[in-house]
Design brief:
about 650 residues; alpha+beta; Immunoglobulin-like; 3 domains; 6-stranded mixed sheet; elongated; disordered N terminus; disordered C terminus
């Protein structure tokens, strides 16, 4: 039996043999890059004569004529195809095809006629082009889960020759970078802040052309259109994937439950305090501390969970810090508070300043990679000076609180006294000028070092120094026209200064997407510093209308924060984009309003008390109409808590 496999002619070698001549072609398909040129071989071993010679090139599938040589004349049906007529004498009838397109892919037939003889060969062209494929369907994933966005490259081009692969997300009218692969390296620093540390390639699969993206801990704002764009020389192609979410994750539901719990606990405990106001002081005071701490601790946990799933690092840290520290201010205004509660406000200012400056330093450290050498040195020096001043102020305040004396055998009394005086001077300077320097630090942290930063570091402290001209003559509890004018002037001047600095900061860094949140945080720190300054300078301050302030801070601000957080989560799930932009705008604006109200009340306490006394006098003139008129407003204010 004859083995038929020896009679099979390979498909990559197509030769037609006749009695007269043999037409030869290539041994296999010709691979040509898109836009390149290719030579389609066609030749005969021997040719007796050029007379009656006819050479015909055409597409095998459509029989479309490409090029024709007949009776010494040449006719081209494609301006990109050319013969080598000078080589006809040696039997070379190859065709040069230039600027190859994707439509040129296919089989071509070269037919040679000479006299009564006719033979042909078939040449196959494969156009080398970049084909990027992904998922044809949208991807659904729960918030908090991980997801893989597929992107594979089907090409004859080796992976090491792929110049760039960029994953981008379309946000409104622009595209933000999710992750970049360039020059055979993955560049995680190129990722937008929203995706930093949450995206990665499958490194072991890159050599196979797999550039799929792994997105970890999916957030609601991740919903949208993603594009995988591949570049290789003159070739480029892309694929798009739509990512959508289904409902809330377990963490999101927990955040909503915590927000509701914070609101409910604040309202319920407030009602309990009111109902038990006729009992002894101890249970009311216990409920008061629970009233202050419980809703804020719940909101602290809610912001932590929100930060894990949705929030940005700096935004989460500052919101959590505020929820953790604000009970100290509430204790200061509580009706049952004692004089020692003033130290808690100072402690809140110190701790919040530590957190705030630490975040700014981290932000500046990350941005310093893009600084020039001079700007980097200036930034480090500015932060070092501010930290030194802050540490000096803290050390002095601690020694003052602990009443540490300079006497002892370890040092000479005069020398120690001189050192203490200098420490006091530096400490006062630090305490007075630290708030004005925070705007300077913001400029450097956002990469606005240079002329703007230097100008800010000089002008802002200078203007603040002018305000102390009024402050030096202000007496805390004194009531007079001059004191009223001085306090009002100082307060107006500080408000104008904060407004000017905020405007200067916002306009100088208008391209920063979270500039509003940073500005609100900075203004709140300024107001907190003003209260601390009044407490330190004026020892005889009292807080009027404690019940009103207490309820506003304990219930009102908590409700605002909880509703803002719930609104942000719900709207982001529906729309895929952040609804409120930066939660610090809501959180710090509400807390700033509460803190500023406290500042107004303690600064103008003598005049506010007069208004209350006037109302008491008017009620006293009508005893029959108001049987309880014999009680002063102060007694009525604190009576429910006794």
């Amino acid at each position: 039996m004859i083995n038929l496999k020896f009679l099979i002619i390979p498909s990559t070698l197509i030769m037609m043999i006749s009695d007269g001549f043999i037409v030869r072609g290539p041994s296999g398909p010709l691979v040509v890059p898109l836009g390149g040129s290719v030579l389609l071989p066609c030749s005969v071993d021997s040719l007796s004569s050029l007379e009656d010679l006819e050479v015909e090139w055409k597409r095998s599938d459509s029989q479309t004529l490409i090029h024709l040589y007949q009776d010494g004349d040449m006719e081209s049906f494609n301006d990109r195809a050319h013969f080598f007529t000078d080589d006809f004498t040696v039997g070379n009838f190859s065709l040069l095809l230039m600027n190859v397109t994707a439509e040129d892919e296919g089989q071509y037939t070269c037919t040679v006629h000479s006299g009564q003889e006719s033979n042909e060969t078939v040449v196959e062209i494969k156009v080398e082009r970049l084909i990027v494929s992904g998922s044809n369907k949208s991807i659904s994933v729960y918030v908090g889960d991980d997801v893989t966005l597929n992107c594979s490259v089907d090409s004859h081009i080796p992976s090491e020759h792929i110049e760039e692969v960029s994953w981008k997300k379309r946000v409104k009218d622009e595209h933000i970078t999710v992750l970049l692969y360039e020059s055979n390296k993955i560049h995680p620093d190129s990722s937008d802040e929203q995706y930093r540390d949450r995206v990665e390639f499958f490194s072991d699969e890159i050599h196979r052309g797999n550039f799929s993206l792994r997105l970890k801990r999916v957030r609601t704002e991740d919903k949208g259109l993603y594009m995988c764009h591949v570049f290789a020389g003159r070739f480029s192609d892309n694929t798009t994937i739509v990512l959508q979410q289904l409902g809330f994750s377990g963490l999101h539901i927990m955040v909503l439950i915590l927000c509701v719990a914070a609101c409910g606990s604040a309202v319920i405990i407030c009602c309990l305090i009111y109902c038990t106001s006729q009992n002894t002081e101890k249970p009311v005071k216990t409920l008061g501390y629970l009233y202050v701490f419980l809703p804020n601790i719940i909101m602290f946990v809610a912001f932590v969970l929100w930060g894990v799933t949705e929030g940005f690092l700096y935004e989460t840290i500052l919101c959590c810090a505020l929820c953790f520290l604000r009970p100290l201010m509430l204790i200061y205004v509580a009706p049952y508070s004692e004089k020692a509660s003033e130290s808690r406000v100072i402690f809140e200012f110190v701790m919040f300043t530590v957190v705030y400056f630490s975040v700014l330093f981290k932000l500046a450290w990350d941005a310093s990679a893009n600084y020039t050498k001079d700007d980097r040195v200036v930034t480090i020096v500015v932060f070092a000076v501010v930290i030194l001043l802050f540490v000096t102020a803290i050390i002095y305040r601690l020694t003052e609180e602990l009443d540490i004396s300079c006497s002892g055998k370890m040092c000479d009394g005069e020398v120690c006294e001189w050192m203490l005086e200098k420490l006091i001077d530096v400490s006062n300077f630090s305490f007075y000028f630290l708030p004005s320097l925070q705007f300077t630090l913001l400029f450097f942290a956002f990469g606005a070092a240079g002329r703007a930063g230097v100008l800010a570091s000089i002008l802002f402290p200078l203007f603040f120094f002018l305000s102390f001209g009024c402050l030096a003559f202000i007496k805390g509890g004194k009531k007079s026209c001059s004191q009223l004018i001085l306090k009002t002037s100082w307060l107006i001047f500080m408000l104008i200064m904060n407004a000017v600095m905020s405007y200067f900061f916002v306009t100088s860094l208008e391209n920063e997407k979270d500039v509003a949140g940073w500005t609100c945080t900075a203004v709140f720190l300024q107001v907190l510093w003003m209260i601390t300054l009044c407490i330190v300078e004026f020892k005889d301050l009292d807080v009027p209308c404690r019940n009103v302030l207490y309820v506003f801070g304990s219930v009102g601000v908590v409700l605002i924060m909880a509703v803002a957080l719930m609104t942000e989560l719900i709207l982001k799930t529906v729309n895929g984009d952040r609804a409120l932009g930066d939660l610090r705008v809501i959180v710090y604006s509400s807390e700033g309003l509460f803190t500023f109200t406290v500042l107004i009340f303690i600064m103008f306490e003598p005049w506010i008390s007069d208004l209350k006394c006037l109302q008491s006098c008017q009620n006293a003139e009508r005893p029959d109409e108001n049987p309880g008129a014999e009680l002063t407003m102060r007694e009525r204010e604190i009576e429910p808590l006794n």
